[in-house]
């Protein structure tokens, strides 16, 4: 009984975090001024139309991926509304493709130099790779591989949440935003992938 309660609480927290951060890009759309990560960019970068296009593409479709992706882990949705599950899955894949490609481009201009750049570019590649693999697997009716890759994919997607959890704590600990940002470029997603690996093993999903 206690385990069921813990699982339910964990699920609720998981969904609320996904929805909360998924809606976060709205702040950039409804405010006229610049805030958040935009403030830390050089003027030459901020005024680049290509960079701004990639930035808004990344945060908007990344938010949509967060908002739609959590539903793919709902057993009730898969069993009772399979068509909705499939349509949301397709929507998630499209959102990831747009956000992931934009994210890789943005990674080139990441604040702090080569360390965060490689971290965020690697995240984008892993996110795209696992999502495409999950899609191809379900097309081949390999549901085990599909489920496993979706766990990895959403773990990468959830980096948007863990980044916003870790960054303020690291900034307080080190007393410096730039150092915290260099660390969080890796910390926001590598532990997520380790957790995903343990989850896949626990569920007995063979990915060979």
Range of strand content: under 5%
Radius of gyration: 18 Å
Number of strands: 0
User: What assembly state would you assign to the polypeptide chains in this entry?
Assistant: single chain
> Percent of residues in helical segments?
over 70%
State the secondary-structure class. mainly alpha
- Sequence of secondary-structure elements: HHHHHHHHHHH
Largest sheet: none
Question: How far is the N terminus from the C terminus?
Answer: 35 Å
Please give a structural write-up.
- This protein has one domain.
- It has 11 helices and no strands.
- The protein has helices at 2-22, 26-30, 43-46, 49-69, 75-80, 82-108, 114-139, 143-157, 159-174, 177-187, 190-202.
Give keywords:
208 residues; DUF2306 domain-containing protein; transmembrane helix; transmembrane; DUF2306_membrane
Write a concise synopsis of the structure shown:
By secondary structure, the protein is an all-alpha fold. It has helices spanning 2-22, 26-30, 43-46, 49-69, 75-80, 82-108, 114-139, 143-157, 159-174, 177-187, 190-202. Helix 4 (49-69) packs antiparallel against helix 6 (82-108) and helix 8 (143-157) runs antiparallel to helix 11.
């Amino acid at each position: 009984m206690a385990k069921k309660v813990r699982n339910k609480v964990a699920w609720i927290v998981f969904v609320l975090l996904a929805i909360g951060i998924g809606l976060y890009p709205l702040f950039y759309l409804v405010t006229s001024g610049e805030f958040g990560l935009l403030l830390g960019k050089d003027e030459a970068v901020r005024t680049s139309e290509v960079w701004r296009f990639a930035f808004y593409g990344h945060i908007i479709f990344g938010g949509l991926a967060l908002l739609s992706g959590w539903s793919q882990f709902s057993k009730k949705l898969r069993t009772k509304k399979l068509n909705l599950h499939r349509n949301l899955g397709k929507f998630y894949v499209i959102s990831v493709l747009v956000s992931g490609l934009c994210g890789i481009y943005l990674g080139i201009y990441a604040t702090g130099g080569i360390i965060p750049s490689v971290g965020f570019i690697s995240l984008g590649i892993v996110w795209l790779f696992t999502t495409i693999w999950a899609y191809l697997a379900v097309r081949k009716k390999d549901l085990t591989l599909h489920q496993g890759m979706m766990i990895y994919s959403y773990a990468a997607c959830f980096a948007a949440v863990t980044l916003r959890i870790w960054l303020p704590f690291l900034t307080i600990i080190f007393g410096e935003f730039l150092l915290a940002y260099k660390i969080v470029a890796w910390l926001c997603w590598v532990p997520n992938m380790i957790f995903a690996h343990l989850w896949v093993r626990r569920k007995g999903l063979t990915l060979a």
